[in-house]
Amino acid sequence: xxxxxxxxxxxxxxxxxxxxxxxxxxxxxxxxxxxxxxxxxxxxxxxxxxxxxxxxxxxxxxxxxxxxxxxxxxxxxxxxxxxxxxxxxxxxxxxxxxxxxxxxxxxxxxxxxxxxxxxxxxxxxxxxxxxxxxxxxxxxxxxxxxxxxxxxxxxxxxxxxxxxxxxxxxxxxxxxxxxxxxxxxxxxxxxxxxxxxxxxxxxxxxxxxxxxxxxxxxxxxxxxxxxxxxxxxxxxxxxxxxxxxxxxxxxxxxxxxxxxxxxxxxxxxxxxxxxxxxxxxxxxxxxxxxxxxxxxxxxxxxxxxxxxxxxxxxxxxxxxxxxxxxxxxxxxxxxxxxxxxxxxxxxxxxxxxxxxxxxxxxxxxxxxxxxxxxxxxxxxxxxxxxxxxxxxxxxxxxxxxxxxxxxxxxxxxxxxxxxxxxxxxxxxxxxxxxxxxxx
Length: 439
Known about the structure:
This protein has 439 residues and is of the alpha/beta class. The protein has helices at 2-17, 45-54, 71-79, 98-110, 135-146, 186-191, 193-209, 220-231, 242-263, 267-285, 298-340, 347-374, 378-417, 419-437, and strands spanning 20-24, 35-39, 59-64, 82-85, 114-117, 154-162, 171-176. The termini are far apart.
């Protein structure tokens, strides 16, 4: 009961937090056989919630034992399907036995249920797949060994790709891979458990790597993100849309940078210097880089600007309504998160949890005030209450559109007064594109 209620509430939270959650090959998860879902782990609790969101059936998680430090925590986390395990480096939590935890995993799988494990162990916000621990392979192989290879167990890799993990209304791609069969390694496991577990773990690594957008060098991640930001453009038409397009662009740049690092490493410094130069110039001129891909006609831009200003003027009352009812709790969440949580990996899940408390509480207070002031019937009160989160989202996108219009106005001014600077910027940006993609 608790599991299903929280799954519904948290699912609503992550749907509001992320603009698009795209799931590829979801049908793979619908098989009725016992499953171990393995996934990368860049976004702490959000990764677990995301797996729970995309799975139709109830799932169980392995979690570090330090979360279960009291009797109450053990009860609540256990009711949510979490199984504790003492990990090396975390210390041993009293009352938790790894033998009992592994036995619980074997029984769950033998009952045909689904277990979720993040074999990287710890969570860090990075795109590089870290070294996988062999515990998942041991659980899978021991389950098969106990059941004479007849359990039908499948290990399903899931690659979680966030465009901006901590950013509100960013996007997520959940890329579900081809199931991995552990049975070819069971005989070896009976003879040499360490070797078999390592071999199967390597299969896990290969399976996950195919689903992710990752670099081989962590230092390149920031550079790749900057390149994607500078070269990505909504004014260049492609067959893909949304997060599919974002992920494809990231993957293309990562692949090119990996090739350059191997074949022409001397170009990396040139690319890095050009990226920094472009970032400084774009920030100084205060323009959007993808405006550089637009064919400029003063009359067209002015007409668009007039239309945009009209839309903003018409939407202003709704924006003010949304801001009045949502801005205080938005700023409170932002203040609490930035002041108290240093690790960026925890920003998104902490924001969702805090928002699930503050926003409904604020809306209830507004509803009581509205009822006291106007004494309207239940239908008007219901309509008012429903409108609060809707106009909150409207206010968010209104501000975003306002910034876009402001940058467009600035771009018109620059094209009239400093056209040579814009042309130079276009040339440098095209040079960057050639440096990255013409090997």
